[in-house]
Design a protein that fits this description.
The chain is mainly beta and about 170 residues long. The protein has a single domain, classed as Electron Transport, Fmn-binding Protein, Chain A (Pnp Oxidase, Chain A, Roll), CATH 2.30.110.10. The termini are far apart. β9 and β10 (about 135-145) form a beta hairpin. The chain has 3 helices and 12 strands, in the order αβββββαβαββββββ. The strands form 3 sheets. Strands 3-2-6-9-10-5-4 form a 7-stranded antiparallel beta sheet. Strands 1-11-12 form a 3-stranded antiparallel beta sheet, with no helix packed on it. A two-stranded antiparallel ribbon has the order 7-8. It is about 10% helix and about 40% strand. It is globular and about 45 Å long. The model has no long low-confidence stretch (mean pLDDT about 95). It has helices at about 5-10, 60-65, 80-85; strands at about 15-20, 20-25, 30-35, 40-45, 50-55, 70-75, 105, 110, 120-130, 135-145, 150-155, 160. The structure holds flavin mononucleotide. Flavin mononucleotide binds near residues 34, 59 and 88. Flavin mononucleotide binds next to β3 and β5.
Length: about 170
């Protein structure tokens, strides 16, 4: 069976994911960020995570050259952030997603996006070939997380929220 892009997207869209913003500093020191739902945990010992970036985009060059990056797990009230960091620099040249955003920086000068459910800072470990994407593996160095709050989800090409849990 030949797998078409349309069928691949439709089938994989059934796999609901969280939504993250990966952030780093580019070679010139400017903040860089991109919305990803390809984030996954890989290994506990050593603590490794991954996310994938398309080879056709502009983000890969900035992230694959960076010595470290941070993953921000978005909360359900952060859809605007997801949209902001999904704007391709190719399609919206001159639009800086960090403009007008209240962001901070951590002790290593990596950008910090406040209000997220969790944040992981990682040392770049490896970039592995993955077809038309590259797989960026990172070794987790620091973690922070919120005990409250609900996740932003991506399902069938749309943002969703987790339904309220039903009492048992
Ligand atoms: C919910 C969502 C998830 C996304 N996940 C990824 C991803 O995992 N990898 C990726 O390369 N692009 C992903 N994108 C697209 C990027 O956010 C961005 O549009 C793309 O990298 C183009 O930007 P660039 O040309 O500046 O690299 C996602 C977009 C959305 C809306």
């Amino acid at each position: 069976m030949h797998v078409t892009t349309t069928d691949f997207r439709a089938a994989l869209g059934a796999f609901a994911t969280g939504v993250c913003v990966a952030a780093t500093r580019d070679a010139g020191g400017a903040p860089a960020g991109v919305t990803v739902n390809s984030f996954a945990s890989v290994s506990l010992e050593p603590p490794l995570v991954l996310f994938c970036l398309g080879r056709g985009g502009t983000a890969l060059a900035r992230f694959s050259a960076a010595p470290s990056w941070a993953i921000h797990v978005l909360a359900d009230n952060q859809r605007d952030l997801a949209r902001r960091f999904a704007l391709s620099r190719r399609h919206a040249p001159g639009v800086d997603p960090w403009d007008g955003l209240a962001w901070e920086e951590d002790e290593t000068r990596l950008p910090v996006i406040p209000g997220c459910l969790a944040r992981l800072t990682c040392l770049a470990d490896r970039v592995v070939e993955g077809g038309d994407h590259a797989i960026l593996l990172g070794r987790v160095e620091r973690l922070s997380w919120e005990k409250a709050g609900r996740p932003l989800l991506y399902f069938r090409g749309r943002y969703e929220a987790v339904a309220e849990a039903h009492p048992a």
